[in-house]
Write a structure and sequence with these properties.
The protein has 653 residues and is an all-alpha fold. Among the domains are: 97 residues, no CATH class; 133 residues, no CATH class. Helix content is 70%, strand content 2%.
Length: 653
Amino acid sequence: MDIDKMFKLPKLPASAGQKRKMPDNPNPEYLKKFKFDEAAPLSQATDEPHVNGNGKGKGRQVTVQDEEMEEREERNAGGGGGGGGGGGGGEVEDFYDDADDEGRFFGGGLNNEQEQILNIFDAAGEGEDGPVLDLPALRRQLGKFERIVTKNAEQRGKYPDDPSKFIESEADLDTSLKSFLPLTQNPPLFYPELVKAGIIPILSGLLAHENTDIAVDVVEVIRELTDEDVGEEEDAEGGAEEEERASKTRMAIGQLIDELLNNSLLDLLVSNLSRLNESEESDSQGVFHILAVFENLLSFMPPLASTITSETSLLGWLVSRLEKEGYDSNKQYASEVLAMLLQEGREVVLRFAKLDGLDKLLQVLFQYIKKDPGDGEELEFMENVFDCVCTSLAEPEMKQEFHDSEGVELMVMMMKEKRLARTRAIKVLDYALQSPPGAPSCIRFITASGLPTFFSAFMGKSTNKSKNRHLQTSQVEDEEHLLGILGSLFTNLESDSPERIRLIAKFVEEGYAKVERLLELREAAESRLAPVKRDIEDEKKTLKAEGAVEEEIEEMEVEWYLRKMDAGLASLQNADYVLAWVVMEDDGAMTHARLLLSRKGMNFKNVSSVLRELKDNIGDDEEEEGEAAEGEAGGAALQRMILEQLIAFLEGL
């Protein structure tokens, strides 16, 4: 079990599991696309996209036939037989019913925009009892959809230069695609029918439609059908029946995704990224939906990252998108998808390296030396980029690229400026300096004058210039990364080298103040860890009392160890590792540390016991292959050897 590897990968972006939903206060333009008149058959739809010569839809104009006027005329005609009184009653009824005439006295008091919004929500409410609730209705709808697609293709082929000839069928196609959205109500019933009826190849083909508005409609349908929140209600409710239904829902989504992948979904999505013009609002939304589909796919099938990065150009598109000037939601979403891809292993990271991805991300981060992100969404973007850098640094080749791209200098500059990027820069340095491949960056860190700024943060003296202090990272996490950097410096800097001597001198100056700070961090970590250790001991006693065999207890040991690491053991191990090095290097530091430990009723044997547990949990995973595994194995062997020497020294004091 390689605990180092297990804990040195950054988490997925905070928003990775948070799907983008409709805004709390949607404007009318945003709501138009959700309006679906289920009373009208698809062939009679009048929602017609405006089409120019190249088939590009630029907007929609809706024409609605007013059936209420006809009903009032019929009532008036029927009432006329009753004489003047009946006719007068009809006129009075018309007068009160007409909300557009003198509405401020007799109508609902709503303007046209407010009425439109209410009508849309009314239609959405009625949609709960829409026509597609059983298989026969779905099959009729699918048959109609196929006829509409065929008609549109025929008209476009026959009159390619005359949009007026195919505009009606294009409007029908647009409306017909919207009718797929309610299918998420029952995936186990409806999704297999889509596959069986051969609809998936048709949808995939429409992704290459000449009118990009139609292609975007298809992307939106695929996004909704593959959303990981589909069937979430069953998961949340619990119970055997709900679990079975949730399982069937996942199977249905999986079947749908497999069929989409078999019909070139990935290539078609990426090709649409290239042909959409984000300067246009509709196309920008299309890019957003495409990125959402990739997020859905990666959430459902994480290993798909290898296929996506090897068979499409998405990785290059994402990197290029992050390099563009300015900031927008699509840029943030691109950073999120990139972070998800890089999490899925060495192969993806090495493909990223071939694109000079790390160097380009460092250039993206350069802007945050002097300024903070403009809002919470941009902060999320910045954190995603930092996470991408950290993930890539898990591979030894990327540590060298980080060094060659002057990443160390950039992080030191960010630490000096003390803005929101400062603590994220400390995290990056923790990853960059680890293991033997990080040794060159350790030397560079010292020569780039990183120690003064580093120890300012270590001592808790630095004042953050950022006005958004509530957006800073947690103090415990920051302290863990600071201790990690110190551990890497002591491991990688050669004995008696100028850089190592400068490091030791920092612990000696100011009356060993930094040794005292080290023991403060150690005590804080022990305090966080103590209650968890008590809980684990109680659980062990309970298991033994219930007759658990030794094998069952051993299986739980891994889980218990991980819990302790999260609770503070990782920080405690790092603090004791650094403390052991300091007392070994300097007799004055040893004397001072012994005095401080004795005041707490402890001695160096307490430190050595922590290091022994660390040594026993290093480098157990021997299954990986390749250069990365060899580098990690060499680093693990070196660390075990160092720990053995430190333990022997401490136990001899």
